[in-house]
Amino acid sequence: MNISIRKHILSNFKDVEKKEIEEAIVESIGDKEELTLPGFGVFFELLWQEADKEMKEEIITNLKRAINKESN
Q: What values do phi and psi take at 32, rounded to 5?
C-alpha cells in the first residue's frame, strides 16, 4: 500500500479556514509528537515554494536563530 503523506496532508487541509491551520500547528507543537513532523514538512515545503527571496532569507535567519537557541 503506497500512501502519499503529501497528498493526505493537502487533502485534509484543502478547504479549512486559516484559524484551523493555526490551531493544528499550535496543537502539534504542544503535543511534541514526532508523528506530526511529516505534516510540518509538507507545510514548510508549501511555504518555501511560495516565498520570495526576501522571505526565504527571513525564514533561514529565524531557523538559524532558533537552532542556536535550542542547542544551548
A: 55, 35
